[in-house]
Amino acid sequence: MAEFVIRVGSRTAQGARPNNEDTYVVDQERNVFLVADGMGGQELGERASSLAAEIIPKAVQNHLAANEDASQAVAHALAEANEAIVSEGRTQPPGRRMGTTAVLAVQQANQVYVAGLGDSRAYLIRGDRVEQLTMDHSVAKALERSGTLTAEEAKKSPFQHVLYKFLGCAEMSEGAEVHPFKPEAGDRLLLASDGLTNHVTEQDLCDGAKRFPDPQGWADYLVPLALERGSRDNVTCVVVAFDRE
User: Fold this and answer.
1) All domains of the chain, ordered by start, with CATH?
2) pLDDT (tens digit per residue) in 5-26
3) How many CA atoms lie within 13 A of 146 on its CB side?
């Protein structure tokens, strides 16, 4: 992808929480980008998201070095992180869950491979179009997809934050879905925790991508915006910009 310059912005905020369980990775040497939102409370959530950040970039690199297809490398890296977090979670007292969401993007050759587990999201903003590349693995969203709930009912459902797929889920039978896309000049890729995505709209993303050509400037705008709109959660984003040289 020599025709592109890849620029990245990132920001995280603790918000109203007693600590920040979000972790992110910006590895421009290997073009690996990650946002992880820890679950389990305080040290458990922090440990789970930190493990994801430690394991996934190295695992992606190892699988690519072994000449694996990039989609498989992404899926296998997430699976390795899941196994490690499940294993560590077994050392915790009964009833204490340890896990993390993860949304991952890896640029390889002329493609970007995106995958997510949980409810952290990836959005591709291209011109006037905003596309959510990942699927929310919450029970409420699953009920919405099946037609049991409407979109509005899903937003208000008590199952909105109950996840059935995440890193640290011992019962996860299927891994992450990998979504490849070929970037175009002007594209913006946003990876974000739900502390941000629950408080910004797709129209905000479309407008912001045009208003803030610098990805760091946009990240510095989005995180405080979510907090101003009432986010009580940790808020984290990584913005990847694909521009002509």
Assistant:
1) 4-244 (3.60.40.10)
2) 999 999 999 999 989 999 999 9
3) 9
